[in-house]
Write a structure and sequence with these properties.
7-stranded mixed sheet, binds magnesium ion, Rossmann fold, globular, alpha/beta
Length: about 280
């Protein structure tokens, strides 16, 4: 397809676990090979900050005796069991041309490449997926080492490399994510003046992302994109969804202020009162 020079090229980079799916790959994999206590193992690992947030599964696959028996085919099988959000394929098709804006859709994730590729087979091309890669022992098929983990700062590296190879301007990047593994890359995209979208209520992420959208349908990320980038008003956005056979129901705009209230001690009350009475400046 010849490129129309008037088309505005964007990069849309999305996390996988709980952004395009409903459950972490690690949970699905652990269930499918019959290993219990995955959340506890992850919790223990993340407490000590030995690996980047999101990279815990890769660490377990390499170092935990119970996960040593995992082979490539187990990862592919786990991918088939992952429940995906609705309409990911349609999302990537619609992103090809929205009134002269084209968004190249890529996935970056700490989840194993084989898991994501298998889960998104026929939905997202394999070369648009940047997951964690392993080297396998040619004799035993065991995971011998990790080539790269796309968690935390690893995601920033993937983003920069993609932006460069696709020749996309730094402010024409959209990043979609749900968890603490996305913090670095979201801060990076904000700094470049791109658009960051949170798809969960994770407080680390919602405080950083420019927009938050909660939905079981992947098409929902179009709402902030159409508003912030394409510049449409809500009426136009409703019409766009309807034209594709969808209704945007219960579209509520909520700004959440999180606050904890507890009893103040007397000196604290005094301090607040003095501050309130002080002249401004
Ligand atoms: Mg995630």
């Amino acid at each position: 397809m010849a490129k129309d020079p008037r088309t505005k090229e964007y990069l849309l980079l999305s996390d996988f676990d709980q952004t395009l799916s409903f459950n972490d790959s690690g949970i699905v994999l652990s269930e499918s090979i019959g290993v219990e206590g995955f959340p506890e193992r992850i919790h223990g690992l993340s407490e000590i900050h030995l690996v980047q947030q999101g990279g815990e599964l890769s660490y377990l696959l390499l170092h935990d005796p119970e996960y040593r028996r995992v082979r490539r085919e187990h990862l592919v099988e786990a991918g088939k069991q992952i429940r995906l959000k609705e309409n990911i394929k349609l999302l990537s098709e619609l992103l090809q041309d929205i009134e002269g804006h084209r968004f190249s859709f890529y996935v970056v994730s700490a989840a194993p490449q084989e898991v994501i590729q298998s889960a998104l087979e026929g939905v997202i091309p394999a070369d648009h997926i940047h997951g964690t890669r392993f080297r396998y022992d040619p004799e035993t098929g065991e995971i011998a080492s990790i080539i790269n983990v796309n968690a935390g700062y690893g995601k920033v590296a993937v983003l920069d490399q993609l932006r460069e190879s696709l020749a996309i301007a730094q402010d024409r990047v959209v990043y979609v994510g749900d968890g603490s593994s996305d913090v670095h890359v979201m801060l990076h995209v904000n700094r470049l003046e791109g658009l960051t979208i949170a798809v969960s209520e994770n407080k680390y992420i919602t405080q950083i992302a420019r927009r938050t959208i909660l939905s079981d349908d992947a098409l929902s990320v179009l709402v902030p994109i159409l508003e912030e980038i394409v510049g449409w008003n809500p009426a136009r956005i409703h019409a766009f969804f309807e034209a594709h056979g969808f209704l945007l129901r219960d579209w509520e705009r909520v700004r959440t202020d999180l606050v904890t209230i507890c009893r103040a001690t007397e000196p604290e009350v005094e301090q607040v009162m003095t501050a309130a009475q002080a002249p401004p400046g």
